[in-house]
Amino acid sequence: MTYLIVTVVTFALIYAVAATALNVRWGWAGEFDFFVYALVAVGAYTYAVIVLPPAPRNDTGLTYILGLNQSPLVGAAVAVVVCAVMSLVIGSIALRSLRQVFFGITTFAAVLILSAVITQQTSLFNGFTGVFGAGQPFNSVLKLSPSAYNIFFLLLCGAIVGGVYFLLQRIFWSPYGLALRAIREDEVAAAAFGHDPYVARLKAYVLGGALAGLSGTLLVAYIGAFNPQAWSPIETVLLFAAIIIGGTGNMKGAVLGSLIVFGLILEGTQFLPPIPALPNAEAALRAIAVGLVMLAFLRWRPQGVLPEQHYRDVPRVRDDPLARLVRLVAHRRGTQ
Amino acid sequence: MSALLTVDGLRKHFGGTAAVDGATFQVEAGAITGLIGPNGAGKSTVVDLVSGLLRPDSGVVHFDEKSIQSLPMHMVSRLGLLRSFQVSREWPRFTLMENMLAAAIDQSRAAMWRAVFRPGPLRKAQERDAVRARALLEEFGLLAMRDDRASTLSGGQKRLLEFARLLMPAPRMVLLDEPLAGVHPVMIDRVRDAVLRMKARGVTVLMIEHNLAMVEECCDNVYVMAFGRMVASGSMRELRANELVKEAYLGSDD
Fold first, then answer.
1. Which of A193, A196, A310 is closest, CB to CB, to B169?
2. What is the pTM of this model?
3. Domain that holds residue A313
4. Does domain B3-90+170-250 sit in CATH 3.40.50.300?
5. Distance from CA of B246 to the nearest CA of A (A)
């Protein structure tokens, strides 16, 4: 049971990094981006082929590029840089003139193209079967038992999520962060005050790409394998659900939303009693549950559990509950 | 006095229509210059062209002896030439204070790496901005509402916020596109005072306005525009006597 909980929370934290990536793009910059989960995949593949040994030259059918046998840190760094550069290329084209749903369609098409290329061109990342054997980084040194390593990886993911949150909070409250949100609210007005919308958006797009690459790195390092089935377009919808539920534009919200969607809803539904007549009901119920919760939030609390933070100039006075009660009673008396 | 802004032979076509057709005018430094004319004369398009929101088909725009006709809006505004919009464009979900802080242009602070690795100086600079923002909001009577969302303001208050926001980066010149549009009559005096205070601060103003009483009170020199070009200029008193202007815009009131 402990093992299961640790595993579920670890997955939720890995997805939380991807959710912060989407929250930079969608929450802060307002970009309706679908490419973020493809970058998780690119990060995962890149990490794998950097840390794996060269593909065997015999007839096993296992083929992938590179195979550099490098350390996990090198793999992670290269994966993050590759995703950042890929975002720079796609962003510099798509952000120039496309907005809203057109931007969404373009990035969605890019995901499908990438998926087709990686599935068909087996020499890249072993096609549909995918890459495997890239798991358990650092354990050749640490030599931990499986359950101890599981906890080690949870702590590693927790530290990374904490570090990402710390950096993103600094950016959120910086002049750049404020300018980016001003551009999201009204691009023309922001340009009228010297903010270059294209450059600010591109920076956010690249930052989001780097975070998505980091998330992919963690994902493949944890599960050890990665193939095209792991990154269908539906995954991006789950990330959108996590942000909408947790709080669009709020990084704590992105983490909370990931814990709710990936931990509670997706993993929690497997504890429901099975329905013998409907063996596939569980998978369907998961999708329905996520959809219903997302719709409920969009209808009744579109800002999410933790709304976007705002600069407060007047310090908020913490209201004394006793004083509030006295005021309430006085108000009741006054109205009678 | 010398001209801070000179515009020569400005042209802009939308399809087959010449919205601006050879507009030529100058704005004296430190003065309030008016721009009046009937609807469709091309006044707002002139402001859009000068501010860099639109790119002219031909013609030259000089601001402080620098040619700016091919610069995009964010570059023009960095030179200290700011503009307002006919419909005020505050950032609605921002608080008043955030509206002010986001308007403080200093691109040296925009770098993301500085926010990550050296946030201290940025925080200090933002505190200085906040002091300036509070002073401006107080001047425009909006200080008490500084933590409220800008979307909760009335039309007139939005105008005042827009002016306070325009002064935040200490501009050299502002282009005001109908500052009284959407302003309740009881607020007109406050908006007029705000425009006059801009002049008192040494900010050069070019103002499009349909309220001729306001133009007469504020403006040192007024251009009349019709069919995409300037047809007359002078003080309001001179313009009222001008037959051409009467025909184009004022109508005969006798």
1. A193
2. 0.89
3. 2-335
4. yes
5. 35
